[in-house]
């Protein structure tokens, strides 16, 4: 079991579980062991040089480098040529992401924060940009103190609103500073790294995830995926699911007023009793007791996700094969088409048309691999009126025609090394 990767805590702060973020300063003098991060974080390198491995890809670390690590991504600093000193900001990604889409996005522009930070996790700031980032981190430090010295500060009026604004500003500057660099170094690559399996599971906890489904998505055998998860985390597939779901449960208990039954539906548990049993075994206290002890619903800009939003996503998943138009779905939920798109951009980071096509093409890919159905029949089966429309959308998402996909893509049966 020597290759097992340690999983870090799901809390932003070990001293205040309600905190939306924490600030610290760390020094790394030698290579680190790989870590799986349950909580999102930004690193701002102030001194030193080294190399980071994040999700299997390697990046240079130097003064002015800013690193974004999302929940359940894996990283290690595998080379240190000069001791590294950096600011570390842990923060509640889901909450900040939701606030950006709900409160800041009055124009309803598409915002794809998860995809953007996944595709561009490391940026290198020039002197001016680095100064701006340094100031933002120091402002957060001034507001809440430093975690490792237990110099945490409390009691400032509107502190969480202030901190949320600063994290949003860091995200915006991170995106802007890195955009040109991302465009210059853009590569058309669709190779899936094994590390993406774990992050995919985290991003789709509300789905009915099985090894069989993951096998079809990643073109790996069920045994290969199970072996990789166990070798990497020391957990079985189902134990990993529960670990991730408990982490998300904690955030929902802190920042929403969903019932246990609603949380079970959202997070993929069997029912309210199941979520309570797993939570008690993992955390050592009942979920409702935890909520009463730590909840801070009215202090974080009322971060909430509505049950209706999840029902809309679930409705499209269930009836994708029918002639679904945005107006029909909007009318079904008594909302406007504009609000329908806003909800989907908020929940799945896709508008109605893109999300429906993604669901249909995913199902079509499964049928192409697991059946001998004709392509025309598959097109009709997943909801397209003509094979031409099906092929056009398949090509857009898979970068190949359905016929080529069927001929060239096979489920990998070999174990992962």
UniProtKB/TrEMBL annotation:
Q: Tell me which InterPro entries the record gives.
A: Homeodomain-like_sf, HTH-like, HTH_AraC
Q: Which UniProt keywords apply?
A: DNA-binding, Transcription, Transcription regulation
Source domain of life is Bacteria
Query: Which GO MF terms are attached to this record?
Result: DNA-binding transcription factor activity; sequence-specific DNA binding
The HTH araC/xylS-type domain sits at 195-293, 310-408
The record's listing under SMART domains reads:
HTH_ARAC
* Alphabetical list of PANTHER family matching this protein: ARAC-FAMILY TRANSCRIPTIONAL REGULATOR (PTHR43280), HTH-TYPE TRANSCRIPTIONAL REGULATOR EXSA (PTHR43280:SF2)
Identification of the protein by name? Helix-turn-helix transcriptional regulator
Its taxonomic placement starts with:
Bacteria, Bacillati, Bacillota, Clostridia, Lachnospirales
């Amino acid at each position: 079991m020597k290759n097992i990767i340690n999983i870090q805590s799901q809390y932003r702060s070990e001293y205040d579980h309600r905190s939306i973020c924490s600030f610290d300063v760390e020094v790394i003098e030698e290579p680190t062991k790989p870590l799986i991060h349950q909580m999102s974080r930004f690193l701002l390198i102030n001194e030193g040089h080294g190399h980071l491995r994040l999700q299997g890809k390697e990046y240079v670390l130097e003064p002015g480098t800013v690193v974004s690590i999302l929940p359940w991504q894996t990283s290690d600093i595998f080379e240190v040529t000069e001791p590294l000193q950096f600011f570390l900001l842990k923060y509640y990604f889901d909450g900040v992401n939701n606030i950006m889409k709900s409160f800041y996005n009055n124009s309803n522009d598409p915002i794809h924060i998860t995809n953007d930070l996944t595709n561009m996790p490391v940026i290198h700031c020039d002197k001016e940009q680095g100064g701006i980032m340094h100031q933002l981190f120091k402002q957060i430090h001034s507001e809440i103190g430093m975690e490792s010295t237990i110099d945490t500060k409390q009691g400032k009026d509107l502190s969480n609103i202030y901190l949320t604004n600063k994290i949003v500003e860091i995200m915006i500057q991170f995106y802007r500073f890195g955009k040109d660099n991302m465009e210059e170094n853009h590569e058309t690559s669709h190779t899936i790294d094994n590390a993406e399996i774990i992050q995919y599971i985290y991003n789709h906890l509300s789905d009915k995830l099985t090894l069989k489904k993951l096998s079809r998505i990643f073109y790996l055998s069920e045994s290969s995926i199970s072996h990789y998860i166990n070798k990497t985390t020391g957990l079985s597939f189902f134990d990993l699911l529960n670990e991730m779901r408990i982490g998300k449960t904690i955030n929902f208990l802190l920042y929403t007023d969903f019932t246990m039954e609603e949380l079970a539906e959202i997070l993929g548990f069997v029912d309210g009793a199941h979520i309570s049993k797993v939570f008690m075994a993992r955390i050592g206290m009942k979920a409702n007791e935890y909520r009463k002890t730590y909840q801070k619903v009215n202090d974080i800009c009322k971060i909430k996700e509505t049950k209706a939003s999840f029902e809309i996503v679930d409705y499209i998943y269930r009836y994708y094969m029918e002639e679904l138009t945005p107006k029909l779905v909007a009318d079904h939920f008594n909302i406007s088409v504009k609000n329908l798109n806003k909800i989907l951009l908020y929940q799945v980071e896709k508008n109605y048309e893109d999300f429906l096509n993604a669901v249909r093409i995913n199902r079509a890919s499964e049928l192409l691999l697991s059946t001998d159905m004709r392509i025309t029949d598959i097109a009709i089966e997943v909801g397209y009126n003509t094979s031409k429309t099906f092929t056009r959308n398949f090509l857009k998402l898979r970068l190949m025609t359905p016929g080529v996909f069927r001929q060239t893509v096979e489920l990998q049966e070999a174990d992962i090394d």
